[in-house]
Amino acid sequence: MKKSKKAAKWKIGVSVLLVLFLIVQFIRPEITHPPVTRDIEVPAEVKAILVRTCYDCHSNQIQLRWFDKIAPMYWGVAQHIKEGREGLNFSEWDKLDPASRKAKLWEAVNQVIAGAMPLKDYEFVHRSAKISSGDLKVLKQYLNSMVVKPLEDTAKINALNKQYTQSQSTAMKFENLPRALNGVEFIPDYKNWLPISPSERFDNGTMRVILGNDIAIKAIQDKQVNPWPKGTTFAKVAWDQLEDKEGHIRTGAFKQIEIMIKDEEKYRSTKGWGWARFKTPKMIPYGKDAMFTNECINCHLPQANQDLVFSSPFKH
Amino acid sequence: MKMRLITLLFLSITISSCSSKKSPDEIINKNASLPEALNWEKAGYKVITSYIDKKDSTMSILYGNDLARKTFIASENKIIPNEMLALVTWKQKADENWFGANIPGSVKTIELIKTSDSKNGATSIAYNLYQGKEFTPSKDTINNQVRIKYIFSQQPSVMP
Questions:
Q1: What is the DSSP letter of A226?
Q2: Is residue A4 part of a domain?
Q3: Closest Cα in chain B, distance from residue A263 (Å)
Q4: What is the rounded CA–CA span in Å between residue A28 and residue A25?
Q5: Residues A129, A211 within the same domain
Q6: Considering only alpha carbons, which residue of chain A is nearest residue B52?
Q7: Cα A155 from Cα B58, distance rounded (Å)
Q8: Using CA atoms in the order B44, B45, B48, B54, what is the torsion angle rounded to 10 degrees?
Q9: Which residue, A124, A146, A168, sits at the end of a domain?
Q10: Closest by alpha carbon to B79, among B139, B124, B32?
């Protein structure tokens, strides 16, 4: 008696689940199929890796498997494609200027190295999306082959000299502090902070010094850097590299400054950090709207195990 | 496939909930850290410029006190008393967190310069070279004048 009751309950349960499963199949967020405006042009072996491992979310040439079309799997895939295309779309390569194309590729490979891409849950079901160490080697070699080092670049030297003349005549004073589109202000006092690390970026021909405010410097001394304490502020300054024939590289024109301010409450919606980027000595705020922070976060997210900070700070 | 779908759910939960947090010792660049004996903050050093030497695979930061920084920015090629400069040079290493970047490895040298009034009215320049993180004073003085000239010839970075 008891046994048959149990069996009946089971049957009802399974039927309910089955009906639910059928109903949810009708909830279908749209997956669009926009045209390919310009496909990325890379050597065939690189292209093959990108198509196999990235294109199903990062292009307008997606290939859905049969199981991708079944909810709830379908929902996840639709979301991946939507977000994937927003972050990087190999089918709309013409929408990016040459410098951004290069930057996107280096960022993408770094996301792979950090294990952030392909998304682990996606890769688990889509085994073909897995990037092997051999694939990674091909990608890295391709990127390294793209590094160009113009020596004694006249245009860059002129750009620096122009900035020098301007900086000395006007002393670069701001009546109103430049403000990023999320409200984070430029901090002129960064010049008086101590550096936490220099960095040579051969991927994009810049060199950087990352400086930290007093709270950051103390946190390093106290070994309280994960998470960084409230009020920690970093300023990352980037310049052109100016290289001479002897392989001596000095700082060229000022490119940009990027700021990160730690405050869990104030910046809750942007992962606990206030982000800003100002371009050129005129300190032009980066981006179209406050959503520019998505770019910052996406790039820094693989560093989640060290509070979204890339730098390995040295101690003073 | 069904099994995979179920496992997938669990997997995504586990991945999002646990990521092994790095310890401060893993984060802080210990080999590149500067000797405590320098009392860096008290000296009031600020960044004047930084540069890279590809032949030696080194990178450097030139620091100066306020007076030194002001003098460098004014670029009048004058050396006045009470300027303090520090040039730290590191061996470069690949950045583990960014393919495409090099960062400081171990400290190679620290060079300190202090200018002061001398009796005859000219500015005297004291130069000291230290090796490595251990801050070992170097007895070799043969290159001192070359290094002093080199350090004072650096252009400050544009820092708006």
A1: S
A2: no
A3: 19
A4: 7
A5: no
A6: A249
A7: 26
A8: -170
A9: A146
A10: B124
- B144 part of a folded domain: yes
Inspect the interface and report whether the beta carbons of B54 and A243 lie closer than 8 Å.
yes
Domain match, A43 and A138 both: yes
**Could you tell me the maximum CA-CA distance found in chain A, to the nearest angstrom?**
96
ipTM of the complex: 0.88
The answer to whether B27 contacts A226, with C-beta atoms less than 8 Å apart, is yes
For residue B96, which residues of chain A lie inside 8 Å, CB to CB?
A: 312
What average pLDDT does range A103-125 have in this prediction?
A: 93
Considering only alpha carbons, which residue of chain B is nearest residue A189?
B160
Q: Which of A213, A102, A196 is nearest to A147 (CA)?
A: A102
Asked whether residue A28 carries a pLDDT value surpassing 90, the answer given is: no
Q: Which of A261, A138, A251 is nearest to A189 (CA)?
A: A261
* Nearest CA distance, A314 vs chain B (angstrom): 4
- Nearest-neighbour CA in chain B from A202: distance (Å): 6
B12, pLDDT greater than 80: no
Subunit contact A223:B158, Cβ cutoff 8 A: no
Helix (H) or strand (E) holding B140: none
In which domain, by residue range, is A196 found?
Answer: 154-306
**Beta carbons of B24 and A143 less than 8 Å apart:** no
Percent of chain B scoring above 70 in pLDDT: 88
What is the span of the domain harbouring residue B95?
A: 41-152
